[in-house]
């Protein structure tokens, strides 16, 4: 068996037309829409993501403000910058890029975001709404995982509701922005859900868990963690990992959490890295920014 490659770039092209139309509709209505991305330090993957978002937003006509703060920035200075963005009428969505320096409390930084501008649902209020099944925003990466899955099922002629009801979905990784939201979205689709992380790998039990999955979502942040022996024959594998790896020549490339070369001969379908979840994630974040602008406009009208 050779897996069908789920083409994220193709799906992103389809989604981009929808997002572009939404952005144009807001501009015609004279509504403010704008994305602010905040990077503290010089993490390579986060920097790549920030630059990529700037390109995508520009292509869609959405203003973007790329804020880069030194790695030695204090927590109080970061919180002050967040407060300023919360109050800025030209900013409808704020993305605080990770990782943050160890001396900065991630929990406090997330709680400092205005919930109505927290487009990744990391604020406690938004995270709770997501778990309850009534999200203000669906986090972009988790949303993209299921956007790709849903469209792949449609293209292959499989009934989505029936597929999820009879499927076991295992999520490898428990991050607040990807792993946990994926668990919530899978549960909302009535799938059987299981969560594991790197500790299962250290204990030697990772394969026991992952081989039981009909759908395997991998967001552990470890290059090549999942190999053929970890995958059930005919499983659908969604690779969320983005890991910088330097080869012998010194060139740095980005690879996934899944060993594509071995898993492609075991899975039914598989996303590549790059070109899988990433292109859809970028667009979904812009879509959330647009939706935030629309809701903020409603709030302002109601307050008048």
Description:
The protein has 304 residues and is of the alpha/beta class. The chain folds into two domains: 30-116, 3-Layer(aba) Sandwich (Rossmann fold); 140-278, NAD(P)-binding Rossmann-like Domain (Rossmann fold, 3-Layer(aba) Sandwich), CATH 3.40.50.720. 46% of the residues lie in helices and 15% in strands. The protein has helices spanning 8-28, 44-60, 75-87, 106-111, 124-132, 140-155, 160-166, 179-188, 198-202, 206-210, 260-263, 277-303; strands at residues 4-5, 35-40, 64-69, 93-96, 168-172, 192-196, 215-218, 236-239, 243-246, 252-255, 269-270. The strands form three sheets. A six-stranded parallel sheet has the order 1-11-8-7-5-6. A three-stranded parallel sheet has the order 3-2-4, with helices on both faces. It has a two-stranded antiparallel ribbon with strand order 9-10. A hairpin with a 5-residue loop joins β9 (243-246) and β10 (252-255).
Outline of this structure?
Pathway: One-carbon metabolism; tetrahydrofolate interconversion. With 304 residues, the protein is of the alpha/beta class. 46% of the residues lie in helices and 15% in strands.
Count of extended strands: 11
Rg value: 19 Å
- Tell me the name of the CATH homologous superfamily of the largest domain: NAD(P)-binding Rossmann-like Domain
Instruction: Briefly note the structural class of the backbone.
Output: alpha/beta
Shape: globular
Mean pLDDT: 94
Termini gap: 62 Å
Q: Helix content range of the residues, please?
A: 40-55%
Q: Main beta sheet, described?
A: 6 strands, parallel
Contiguous low-pLDDT stretches (5 residues minimum) are none
Strand coverage percent: 15-25%
Order of helical and strand elements: EHEHEHEHHHHEHEHHEEEEHEH
**CATH class category label of the largest domain:** Alpha Beta
- What is the CATH topology classification name of the largest domain? Rossmann fold
Q: So, CATH architecture of the largest domain? A: 3-Layer(aba) Sandwich
Number of domains: 2
User: How many helices?
Assistant: 12
Tell me the strand order in the biggest sheet: 1-11-8-7-5-6
Keywords: Amino-acid biosynthesis, Histidine biosynthesis, Hydrolase, Methionine biosynthesis, Multifunctional enzyme, NADP, One-carbon metabolism, Oxidoreductase, Purine biosynthesis
Binding site for NADP(+): 173-175, 242
Function: Catalyzes the oxidation of 5,10-methylenetetrahydrofolate to 5,10-methenyltetrahydrofolate and then the hydrolysis of 5,10-methenyltetrahydrofolate to 10-formyltetrahydrofolate.
Pfam families: THF_DHG_CYH (PF00763), THF_DHG_CYH_C (PF02882)
């Amino acid at each position: 068996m050779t897996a069908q490659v789920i083409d994220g770039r193709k799906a992103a092209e389809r989604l981009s037309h929808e997002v572009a139309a939404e952005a144009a509709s807001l501009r015609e209505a004279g509504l403010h829409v704008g994305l602010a991305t905040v990077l503290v330090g010089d993490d390579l993957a986060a920097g790549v993501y920030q630059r990529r978002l700037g390109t995508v937003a520009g292509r869609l006509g959405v203003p973007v403000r790329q804020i880069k703060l030194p790695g030695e920035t204090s927590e109080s200075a970061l919180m002050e910058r967040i407060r300023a963005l919360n109050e800025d009428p030209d900013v409808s969505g704020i993305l605080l890029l990770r990782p943050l320096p160890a001396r900065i409390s991630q929990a406090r930084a997330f709680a400092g975001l205005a919930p109505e501008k927290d487009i990744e649902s990391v604020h406690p209020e938004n995270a709770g709404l997501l778990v309850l099944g009534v999200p203000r925003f669906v986090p972009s990466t988790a949303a993209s995982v299921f956007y790709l899955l849903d469209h792949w099922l449609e293209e292959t002629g499989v009934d989505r509701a029936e597929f999820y009801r009879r499927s076991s979905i295992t999520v490898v990784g428990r991050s607040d922005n990807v792993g946990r939201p994926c668990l919530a979205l899978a549960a909302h689709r009535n799938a059987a859900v299981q969560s594991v992380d790197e500790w299962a790998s250290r204990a030697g039990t990772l394969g026991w868990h992952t081989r039981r999955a009909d759908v395997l979502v991998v967001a552990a942040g470890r290059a090549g963690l999942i190999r053929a022996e970890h995958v059930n024959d005919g499983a659908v594998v969604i690779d969320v990992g983005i890991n910088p790896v330097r080869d012998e020549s010194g060139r740095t490339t980005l690879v996934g959490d899944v060993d594509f070369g071995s898993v492609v001969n075991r899975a039914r379908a598989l996303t590549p890295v790059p070109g899988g979840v990433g292109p859809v994630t970028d667009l979904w974040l812009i879509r959330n920014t647009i939706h935030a602008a629309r809701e903020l406009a409603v709030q302002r009208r109601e307050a008048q």
